[in-house]
Design brief:
The protein is α/β, with parallel strands linked by helices. It folds into two domains: 187 residues, D-Maltodextrin-Binding Protein, domain 2 (3-Layer(aba) Sandwich), CATH 3.40.190.150; 106 residues, D-Maltodextrin-Binding Protein, domain 2 (3-Layer(aba) Sandwich). The chain is built from eleven helices and eleven strands. The protein has a six-stranded mixed beta sheet. Helix 2 packs across helix 9 and helix 2 runs antiparallel to helix 10. The chain is globular, with a radius of gyration of 21 Å.
């Protein structure tokens, strides 16, 4: 037994300097950042700005790879088979914390991701075509109640925050809606402009179409009204006690060396503070939402529990 302990101690003493040396030379090659939504949408545009700024801080290119689908959870799943060396990172949308309650998976969103930094969240709302029958939120509610299951609305995917929040609103108001999922904001925008939907629940990537007079905002989901859409009431103003901004950040594979996580955190924090990133967020009424690695890990743990309650309330828990 003593010999085994000595061997283990010797192995540990050899490994420790090598990990330290690895962290000192990191990064020595480009880093991949996997985004959960398609190119061209608010998430892609803002995260590319962040990646460009982080590249300067790290001295290596941060390459963005889009991997949409599955409610925004594919990047987090890819972390589970990636080396824990800091060279593969992923956006972690809120949908990741719902995954174990709706799908059979062999990993834990809290324990099996190294949480690096939270960077922002979304400004959400529900929009409708200007030439459609829904002129305001009261029209939306009245139509939905008079025509159960016939009001078609789109979202950026099943079990995403736009989908679940809209269903929670519908549940509270006694409405039955017809949900149609898409792979991201760009695809959803094409559908509603093309006349395939009566409404859409999304982040404010719809802003240009509102400003050009093609869509109107029926409500927004923040604590306060959005300056860009000052005429649109918040859910709270409409008597619905819901605020949704769906914070998201960046994760790495479990077991990524702490020194590497710290280097990544520091680089992305610096990237968040660059004017170009703040301006990119403002384009979509998004704000910086900073959490360091420890706070972000705690947020993940707490959100994992609160999302379970939401999934159960909506009756969407699947038998495992």
């Amino acid at each position: 037994m003593r010999r085994r302990q000595l061997v283990q101690l010797a192995a540990a003493s050899i490994a420790a300097p090598s990990l330290g040396a690895f962290a000192q030379t990191f990064p020595a090659k480009p880093i991949k950042l996997i985004i959960a939504f398609p190119a061209g949408g608010p998430t892609d545009i803002t995260m590319r700005s962040l990646a460009d700024n982080a590249s300067k801080a790290l001295g290596q290119t941060v390459v963005v790879e889009n991997k949409p689908g599955a409610g925004g959870t594919l990047p987090a799943q890819q972390l589970q088979t990636s080396p824990a060396d800091g060279y593969t990172l992923a956006q972690i949308p809120l949908g990741v914390f719902r995954l174990p309650y709706t799908t059979r998976i062999a990993w834990d969103p809290v324990k099996d991701i190294a949480y690096v930094i939270n960077v922002t969240g979304y400004a959400f709302g529900i929009v409708a075509p200007v030439d459609g029958p829904l002129k305001n939120w009261n029209d939306f509610v009245a139509y939905a109640k008079a025509n159960p299951g016939k009001l078609s609305y789109g979202s950026t995917g099943t079990l995403t925050s736009p989908h679940l929040t809209t269903e929670l609103i519908a549940q509270q108001l006694g409405m039955k809606l017809n949900h149609i999922p898409y792979k991201g904001s760009a695809e959803l925008t094409q559908a509603i402009v093309g006349g395939h939907l009566m409404a859409a629940a999304d982040s404010t990537g719809f802003a240009p179409l509102v400003e050009s007079g093609k869509l109107r905002v029926l409500c927004t989901w923040g604590e306060k009204r959005l300056p860009k859409f000052a005429d649109a009431p918040t859910l709270k103003e409409l008597g619905i006690d819901i605020v949704q901004n769906s914070p998201f950040g960046i994760g790495a594979p479990r077991g990524t060396p702490p020194d590497v996580v710290k280097k990544l955190h520091d680089a992305f924090k610096k990237a968040m503070e660059e004017p170009s990133y703040v301006q990119a967020l403002a384009r979509y009424d998004m704000l910086p939402i900073y959490m360091d690695s420890a706070r972000y890990a705690k947020f993940a743990q707490d959100t994992f529990q609160s999302e379970k309650a939401l999934i159960e309330k909506l009756g969407l828990v699947k038998a495992q």
